Amino acid sequence: MTGQADAPHISVDHVNKRFQTASRAQLQALKDVSFAATRGEFISIVGPSGCGKSTLLYIVAGLLDASDGTVTVDDERVTGPSPERGVVLQNFSIFPWRRVIDNVAYGPEMRGASRQERRRIARQYLETVGLGEFAEYFPRELSGGMKQRIAIAQMLACNPSIFLMDEPFGALDALTREVLQEQLLRLWERDRKTVLFVTHSIDEAVLLSDRVIVMATRPGRIKEIVPIDLPRPRRAEEIRALPQFGTLRRHIWASIRAETLEMMQ
Amino acid sequence: MKPDSAAQAAPLPRPSSRPTLPAGLVRWLHAVARYYPVALILLLWELCSRIGLFDPLFVPALSDVLQTWYVEMFVTHDLLVHIAYSFGRASIGFAMGATVGIMVGILMGRVRAIESFVDPLISAIFPTPKLAIFPLMMVFLGIGDASKIALIFLGCFFPIVIATYAGVKNVDKYFIWNARTKGANSRQVMWTVVFPAAMPFVFAGLRTAMLTAFLLIVASELIAANEGLGYLIIFAQRTFNPTLMFAGVLTVSTMGFIADRLLQALGRRLFRWQEQAER
Prior knowledge:
Structural class of chain B: mainly alpha
Oligomer: heterodimer
Shape of chain A: globular
Shape of chain B: flat
């Protein structure tokens, strides 16, 4: 099965997630979520706050358990986290007590690579994200954008076949964000990994993705899946100038906006 | 953002005709100069004694105290023996308290059953002044080393276990998640995430515990002992030897000061990665 080109790489089937809130009430965070990602596909997940998009990503990562339903990767059921599914979390979850190079070397270190071997791997991925000269710095000495690139290098060093990214550029200024989007595009075009990318930015989702999953809230569920049939390889300025880009952006925007207004009434 | 902070730290060479001292020496001089109020008080003390403002039976001159100190320390070596006793007991108690405190603190932070069992015990026992239990300990363990070490162990255990527990509880969930997605098993998460993240808290606990150890060793030796700095002080007082008494007090406070400074310096080295470590 795994060898087939159109077999899903990630398959999410009828996933429900309920949380027990502090007031003993049940919160339905996700309701009957199903979708599949083919190998090498870039999928973004957008939606209003509280729609469970991060929760969905954590379930695929194996960090949270689904209340019902299953997640399978290459026909194997996900029961816990694995370095095979690389994760970049929101706010700079790299380790402040490790130097940059030892942060990037973390994954290889955990699987028992020798000091020399893991340093070599770490150097390679630090170069990939353009931070080779900051190897011996501590994270606190770096800017937010640099920290997030280190988080990406840390994930790359595990050589995962899937990237799960939870608003990786959310806390960055607009300019840094655009530079990193461009870098991610180049990286994806080179390696063609399967990507699930949670974001607040519709612009970012359309720019990067093959498909955009639009989620609705209360309960969190998939509202629609929008195919992004823009040409590849993509250059950010060119893509943003295309008329289809505006059309897709407006379509998704309207979809989320209707949802948000409904919720407020 | 701040890759240039190293450059800021180095002072710019000022155009000056004066010969410049090496930077290390300058820093050291600055550190010493910071303690001028202490030097001032000591000077005032000596001055008051010299002009006869202090009765030497109550407050002997600093110079006499220092002379006695020198003799006791380097000629008869009596003081050295007392220091060795006090320091030995305090370090053993402290080391035991730290080891057990850190272990229990980590277990409390990670294992729910242990947390719910130990937490109320700590809340109940912690506020008890440990010195109040000392007579009880003497009944069980005698007036020798054992009762004092046990007292210091107890005094050190509580601040360390509480700090460690708080530190472990405070570890950001996302650090742990990040580690797990990079393939770390629970033992690796423990050593590479929970422990380093909790270290600054543990260290704060160690500092409190060390000062407690100094307090308790002197107090317990004042109460009952045949050697040690506390014994020396109370012996000097009972034999009307104020110079020796002051020499003992001076030794205790200097030891406490040096130990605390060393621990702080170690902390600065260990926690260079911390955001708030900049000053």
